[in-house]
Design a protein that fits this description.
Number of helices of chain A: 11
Number of strands of chain A: 13
Structural class of chain A: alpha/beta
CATH architecture of the largest domain in chain A: 3-Layer(aba) Sandwich
Strand content of chain A: 15-25%
Strand order of the largest sheet of chain A: 3-2-1-4-5-6-11
Oligomer: homodimer
Low-confidence stretches of chain A: none
CATH class of the largest domain in chain A: Alpha Beta
CATH topology of the largest domain in chain A: Rossmann fold
Number of domains of chain A: 2
Chain lengths: ~325, ~325
C-alpha cells in the first residue's frame, strides 16, 4: 500500500520508515526539515519504494499537489511540533504546525477521497486528570499546554471529518516516546548537556516528574497493531507502558551510560519542567492490551536502551549535517 | 466594568447588550456583520456607554488595536458561525470563524493582560454520547460536525491560555438557544418558509429530533450566574433545560402561532436534519442548578415564546436593512 508519512524526517518516522519499506509498502515522506533532519531520510533515498518531499504542510495548494501526485492509501500523520515548552513562547506555533497542518491534511484527504489516517496524539490531552491511570474515555479534557490544546483540536477535526466524509481514524495518545534518532526529549538533552559539561547537569524541575517512557519500536508496533485490529470509525488508544520513570532516574542512567561519575545535578526547581508540563503522567493502557498487544520494554528498560543508543549515536557524530 | 462583546450584532448579544448596559457596564461590541445585523445594534448606537466596531476578528493587528483602544475588564466571546450545516460545505469556515478567531482573542488578552473570558461553547462537543443526559465531565469527546470540532478546539485553547497565562474562563455548553432577534435556527426558518408558502412546510429530517431549547433570557441569566458564583480557573457548565422539544412540535407551534391550518409537513427524511446534526440531545444541567440557578422557561415554553416573538417581529418587517 502507498503510505504518506508526515513528519517523515522526524524521530518516529525515522524508525517507522524501514519497517514500512521492509513490509513492502511504498512510502511517500513529507517534512519541512525544521525539526526533522536529512540524516533521518538519507538511508532511504535511492530506494525505489521511497519518495521524499520537502514541503511545508501549511501550504494547502502544495499539499493538494502532493495528494494529486501520490494519492496515498493511508496517511500516517506524525508531523507536529514536539517541543511542548516552545508553544508557550510562540503561542501560534502549535496552532499552525499542529491544528492548521492537520486541517490541510484532512481537507486534502477529503478532496482526493483518501479514507484512512493514523494520528499521533498525546496523553497531554488529559491535562492534569483526577483519575490515574487515565483511560481513553476520561473527561473533562482541560489541556494545560498549547501543544496539548492543538492535539485535542486535531483529534476533534479528525473525528468530524471521519463522521462527515466517511473516513476512518486511528488516534494514539502517546506517553513519552524514546529511542534512537531523537530530535528532542529529556535523554537527548541530557546527553547533549553532558557532552558539553561532564561535571554538571542542569535538570528542569525538581527531578520528581514521573512519566511512562515507551520505546519507539513498541510505539510503532502498537500503532500497527491497533490499525490492524480496531475497525471503529474513530479508534483511540493510549499508547504507553504500565510503569514509569522519574527524571532523576533518567539523569542517573544517562550519567552511568556515559561512564561519568560525580556529576552535580543542578535542579531548576519546581514540580514542573516547564510551563504546561504535566509532572505525573499515568496512561491506562488496558484498551490496547485487551486487544492483544503488549509493549516489550518497560519504561525503565526503554530509558536504558535509549541512553545506550543516543550516546553511541552522538559519539559517532550522528545527525551532523 | 468594560465588557468586550464579540459577535456583538448577533442574536445572543442583541439580547445581552441591554442587560449589560442596564446594569451600568460599558459595552464594546465587535462584529463583522456577516451573520449579525445592523438592526441588532441600532437601539444602542448613541448610548455613551456603548461602542461598536465593525471588525473581522481574523485580523489580528486590528484585534490588537481594539484591545489597545478599549482594554476590557472582561471578554464575552459570542462570535462564531452559528449555522452548523454550513461548516460541512465550507470545511474551513468554523476553523477560521471559530478556532482562529478565538486564538486571536486569547492572544490579544494575553498581550494586554486581560484575565477573564466568558465563552459560548456547545453541547455539540459531546458528539453522540453514550450517556444521556450528558454531564460536563463526559468523555470521550468525538464531535461529528466541524462546528463542534471548532468549539472543542476553542475550549482547549482557552484552557491552555488559562493555565499558562493566569487567565480565568467561564465556558458554557449551550443547548439550542431561542428567542427574539434570531439570525438562524429552526423557529426562524419555519416562520420564513411559512410566510413564503403557508400551505406547505419543508422540515429537515423526519421531525423526531429532540433537543433542549433554552430561552435566550435564561441563557444570559445562566451565564451571568455562573460567572458570579464559580471561581475555578476553568469553569464549564452545560447551559440547558431538563426537558426537550421535538422538531415536529416546533413546526406545530409555529403553524398555530401564525394562525395557519392544514399545512402540509414535508419531511426531507432521515433521523438527522443535516450531516453533523445530533438528533437526540440531553444535557445534564445539574452542575449549574446545584450552584443555585434555574431556567424560568421549559423547552416547550421557550419554543412558544420564541414563535410569538419571531412572528411578531417578522410581520413588523423587523431586520430589514
Amino acid at each position: 500500500m502507498r503510505i504518506l508519512v508526515t513528519g517523515g524526517a522526524g524521530f518516529i518516522a525515522s524508525n517507522l520508515t524501514p519497517r514500512l519499506l521492509g513490509a513492502g509498502h511504498e512510502v511517500v515522506a513529507v517534512d519541512n526539515l525544521q525539526l526533522g533532519t536529512r540524516a533521518h531520510i538519507r538511508p532511504f533515498l535511492g530506494n525505489p519504494q521511497y519518495t521524499f518531499w520537502k514541503l511545508d504542510l501549511l501550504d494547502l495548494p502544495k499539499v493538494d499537489e502532493l495528494f494529486t501526485t501520490h494519492k496515498p492509501d493511508l496517511v500516517w500523520h506524525l508531523a507536529a511540533n514536539s517541543d511542548i515548552s516552545f508553544g508557550t513562547t510562540y503561542t501560534d506555533f502549535d496552532l499552525k504546525g499542529g491544528t492548521l497542518v492537520t486541517y490541510n491534511i484532512l481537507e486534502s484527504m477529503r478532496k482526493h477521497d483518501v479514507k484512512r489516517i493514523v494520528f499521533s496524539s498525546s496523553g497531554a490531552v488529559y491535562g492534569e486528570p483526577l483519575m490515574l491511570p487515565t483511560p481513553e474515555d476520561y473527561g473533562p479534557l482541560w489541556p494545560i499546554s498549547l501543544y496539548a490544546a492543538s492535539k485535542l483540536a486535531c483529534e476533534a477535526l479528525i473525528s468530524a471529518f471521519c463522521f462527515n466524509y466517511d473516513m476512518q481514524a486511528w488516534i494514539y495518545r502517546f506517553g513519552n516516546i524514546v529511542g534512537p534518532n531523537p530530535t528532542h526529549g529529556v535523554s537527548f538533552d541530557f546527553v547533549k548537556k553532558l557532552l558539553k559539561d561532564p561535571r554538571r547537569l542542569e535538570i528542569l524541575g525538581d527531578g520528581t516528574q514521573t512519566k511512562p517512557y515507551v520505546y519507539v519500536e513498541d510505539c510503532i508496533d502498537g500503532m500497527a497493531f491497533g490499525f490492524q485490529h480496531a475497525q471503529d470509525r474513530v479508534n483511540c488508544f493510549n499508547l504507553a507502558v504500565e510503569d514509569w520513570t522519574s527524571v532523576r532516574t533518567i539523569a542517573e542512567v544517562t550519567v552511568a551510560t556515559m561512564g561519568l561519575s560525580n556529576v552535580e545535578f543542578a535542579f531548576t526547581g519546581g514540580s514542573r519542567g516547564w510551563t504546561g508540563d504535566v509532572p505525573k503522567v499515568r496512561l491506562d493502557t488496558g484498551k490496547l492490551t485487551r486487544l492483544g498487544w503488549k509493549p516489550r520494554l518497560t519504561s525503565d528498560e526503554a530509558i536504558v536502551q535509549t541512553a545506550d543508543a543516543i550516546v553511541a549515536q552522538m559519539r559517532a557524530g550522528w545527525g551532523k549535517g
